[in-house]
Write the structure tokens for this entry.
Amino acid sequence: MAVPHYSYQGVLTIRGNVYTTYTCEAESFKITKAIDLSIRMAETVAQATQLPPDQLRLPEQETPRKNSKSKEHKEVQLVDDSPKKTALIGANLDPK
């Protein structure tokens, strides 16, 4: 099969739309990312089927911890402009 050879003489002008180009490129990246994610998910499923059933169970979640602030202490802001600068003092102290 012969490949045609084109010979141009003069100025060749190419026109394009920057917005369309950007949109197409952004969509291409989204599709590529989705395909890559699909491939990784398929690989993970394939690896999971090879594991023994006792290794497939989900770890138990820790119970939420209770409020760690003690009723014996009170948090006091040291500087008006900086709420992160605090100190703990005894809650049962005399106000003076």
About this structure: The chain has one helix and two strands. The two ends are 101 Å apart (CA to CA). The beta strands are 73-79, 82-90.
